[in-house]
Design a protein that fits this description.
The chain is α+β, with helices and mostly antiparallel strands. Helices cover 57% and strands 14% of the residues.
């Protein structure tokens, strides 16, 4: 039976363990890959909605919030420690 395209696509969206461990140890290239991996999600949570009588509904990306989320992701990634499997 043929594999589902959605299942195959999901597997491509997972960060490789070596990237995560390198980012956790402070590797700047690995950290940029982690931030790039979560960029769409960060942009989603940085979106602001504005309503006005003149323009109606508008959306924009709050760059301060986006930067704050990226900094928190980097700080948590660098401080991440792995526990061995039992």
């Amino acid at each position: 039976m043929a594999k589902s395209k959605n299942k195959h696509k999901h597997n491509n969206n997972i960060l490789h363990f070596s990237i995560i461990t390198a980012a956790a140890s402070g590797d700047s290239i690995a950290l940029s890959l982690v931030v790039e991996h979560y960029d769409r999600l960060i942009m989603h949570y940085s979106r602001r909605h504005v309503y006005s009588d003149d323009f109606g509904h508008r959306e924009y990306i709050d760059e301060v919030l986006r930067s704050d989320i990226e900094c928190k992701l980097i700080n948590k990634t660098v401080g991440f420690s792995f526990k061995p499997a039992e």
